[in-house]
Amino acid sequence: MPPHSVMDADLGLFDPDGDRLKEECGVFGVFGHPESAALTALGLHALQHRGQEGCGIVSSDGKIFNAERQQGLVGDNFSRRDVIERLKGSIAIGHNRYSTTGEVALRNVQPFFAELDTGGFALGHNGNLTNGHMLRRELIKSGAMFHATSDTEVVLHLVARSKKKRMVERFIEALMRIEGAYSFVAMTTDTLIGARDPVGIRPLVLGRIGDAFVLASETCALDIVGAEFVREIENGEIVIITKDGVESHRPFGKKAPRPCVFEYIYFSRPDSIVAGRQVYDVRKAMGAQLAKETPVDADVIVPIPDGGVPAAIGFSQQSGIPFELGIIRNHYVGRTFIEPEQQIRQLRVKLKHSANRSVVKGKRVVLLDDSLVRGTTSMKIVQMMFEAGAREVHMRISSPPITHPDFYGIDTPRTTELLAANRTVEEMREFLGATTLAFISVDGIYRALGFPGRDNRQPQFTDHCFTGDYPTRLVDHDGLEDEPQLSLLAEMRPL
Question: Which residues does 106 contact at the CB level (< 8 Å), separation at least 6?
């Protein structure tokens, strides 16, 4: 089983989120503010949903770099004033980590920092490189020494080896070598840099607070620090922020943007705005579209919290079926729970979700969630609904069936573990034990986003998990489609 499986029968470990898609990472940066580190800590707190394994901040006062990198949550590591006071300077970048390459270890917590011949350089990355393994092998053969197992370190080495004179030229040269999905925040002693991959798979926005500039993965991070949204960083754009203002570079030529559709379905916070669309409104529209496509005669709409709530509201409003909180979520369950006895293991789902019996007893329930991955947790929740007295349980999913793994920063299981990749809808329904099962269509997702449907000649979004239409080359994964984000630990073997 992969590291984040739902259970380990031998050790008795339970991950309450093991059947969910794993978050990406979150990046944040500030230029020109005396409280840059404090603002960065607040921004990372707003982006905590994008990564909970580690967090870090690097700052500069124009001469000296200061860094704090820790495992765990932002609030546990950056709430003390003395920590923030050590991060002096008016420039800072920060990063929340969820590992898609490299193991969970402090050495992989970003931002990474290195002393180059031109001075210090720090870098934080949201995304995943699809040729990182190839580049790493090439660099090691030429004498490079790696300290982390994250693909982000590859970019540091490429920048360090560039013969260009200006840092921006070095950075651009490095970006021309890499492939995949990325949003970078980087800094020197006097410059903040932001970069987005050529098709804009991962998000990045620019904000302003007074005379200071802010870069962030989502607009919700601008809101928490009181920054005004200026614009999105465009696909393939690199912005250089100095005391003279914002300078824009577009070295990749013009390409049609293909942002990741999962930002709307799952990853972004509901109060964020992505490409001019409020995420909460889009998720409600997805629920309404799902109700149009898959009508059902039922008594109550019940979301699986928290992800299924907006879509369930939209489904309820479209269908006229009442919305109720038929499942109560316990928000105080950690990632891993020790279950010493087999009989306790049988109750694993109830650690996080409990049935609101008075809402579902004797009712025909529409159980709504935003995605279906392995299906093991959904199966337990369907069973929980029947045990609470539901007459029927109709499962509805506000994303299409996930049939292909992701290689761009979402930690999806192997193809062999994706329920929809190996079973028909009817077989999935039988596995879950639901009365009926239905998904929104791929075209339905596009309609909820304001398009008439998917343009197969030029898709408007990156939707490969549903269609297998990957927007970049998968250099490291050719012939290895059954592998998710390949751990760079595999590259530690002798060459």
Answer: 54, 69, 70, 71
Class of domain 277-448: alpha beta
- Please give the Cα distance from 249 to 172 (Å, whole number): 9
pLDDT of 353 reads: 85
Ranges of beta strands (E only) in 62-111 are 65-71, 91-97
Domain spans, the chain: 7-258, 277-448
Active site residues: 25
Could you give the CA distance from residue 69 to residue 80 in angstroms, rounded to a whole number? 14
Q: How many CB atoms lie within 10 A of CB 489?
A: 12
Question: How far is it, in rounded angstroms, from Cα 235 to Cα 300?
Answer: 42
Is 379 in a helix, a strand, or coil? helix
C-alpha gyration radius of the chain? 23
Q: Which amino acid is at 153?
A: E
With bands split at pLDDT 50, 70 and 90, how would you rate the model's confidence at 149? confident
Tokens of 193: 């840099």
Fold match, 7-258 / 277-448: no
| Pairwise CA distance, residues 46 & 51, whole Å | 11
What is the rounded distance in angstroms from the CA atom of residue 26 to the CA atom of residue 6?
24
Instruction: Return the number of other C-beta atoms located less than 10 Å from residue 301's C-beta.
Output: 29
Distances in Å between the Cα of 247 and the Cα atoms of 125, 168, 206 are: 20, 10, 12
Helix (H) or strand (E) holding 209: strand 205-209
Q: From 221, 136, 217, select the one nearest 182 (Cα to Cα).
A: 217
Q: pTM of the entire structure?
A: 0.88
pLDDT for 482 beyond 80: no
Is the preceding peptide bond at 111 cis, omega within 30 degrees of 0? yes
pLDDT, one tens digit per residue, over 415-453 is 988 999 999 999 999 999 999 999 999 999 999 999 999
- pLDDT tens for 303-357 read 999 889 999 999 999 999 999 999 998 877 654 444 445 445 455 666 778 999 9
CA–CA gap between residue 216 and residue 212 (Å, rounded): 13
Q: What is the pLDDT of residue 21?
A: 67
Distance CA 489, CA 149 (A): 6
Contacts with 5 (C-beta within 8 Å, 6 or more apart), sequence order: 15, 18
User: What end-to-end distance do the CA atoms of the chain give, in Å?
Assistant: 27
CB 258 within 8 A of CB 276: no
β partners of residue 249: 238
pLDDT over threshold 70, residue 489 = no
What pLDDT was estimated at residue 147?
81
pLDDT for res 349: 62
- Taking the C-alpha atoms of residue 53 and residue 72, their distance in angstroms, rounded to an integer, is 5
DSSP 474: -
Q: Give the separation between CA 479 and CA 441, rounded to whole angstroms.
A: 29
How much is the pLDDT for 106?
82
Architecture of domain 7-258: 4-Layer Sandwich (3.60)
